[in-house]
Write a structure and sequence with these properties.
This protein is an alpha+beta fold. The chain has four helices and five strands. 28% of the residues lie in helices and 24% in strands. A five-stranded mixed sheet has the order 2-1-3-4-5.
């Protein structure tokens, strides 16, 4: 991925922090998902008093795209921090990694963890979920 595109995704993810609904943890997370068609789908985390119905930013972005018929993706950028202050990487939880496995090639799908446009790292899904279980395991 080109640096300019990564920076654009970081900006989009940071913008999503303002939409987070986090009255319990106060930990804001934003995500920007790049589909293979070139469109971006964004998401924020949405908490619930019962905790289990809470939805992560990554899954919000994926579910928005999937609900519009998009099923192929290149990359996702994730940012997050307490009270919306970005100080360290906010890596995707296990459930989000599993959703990524359902729709992404673990060898090529990129996961960008960022604090700023100057501080970020890019991983493949396979690096974050080695030996992941996905649709290919059921073929």
């Amino acid at each position: 991925m080109e640096k300019k595109q990564i920076e654009e995704m970081i900006d989009l993810a940071i913008e999503q922090l303002q939409y987070s609904y986090v009255p319990y943890s106060h930990f804001h997370v934003g995500a920007a998902l790049l589909a293979k068609n070139g469109l971006y789908y964004t998401g924020c985390n949405i908490e619930n008093a019962a905790y289990t119905p809470t939805n992560c930013a990554e899954r919000t972005a994926f579910f928005k795209a999937i609900s519009e018929g998009v099923r192929e993706f290149d990359a996702i950028c994730i940012v997050g921090g307490k009270d919306g202050v970005l100080t360290e990487y906010a890596a995707p939880c296990g459930v989000c990694r599993q959703v990524m496995m359902e729709f992404c090639d673990p060898k090529t799908f990129k996961v960008i963890l960022a604090v700023s446009k100057e501080q970020y790292d890019v991983y493949t899904l396979e690096e974050l979920l080695p030996q992941g279980f996905g649709p290919a395991n059921l073929a």
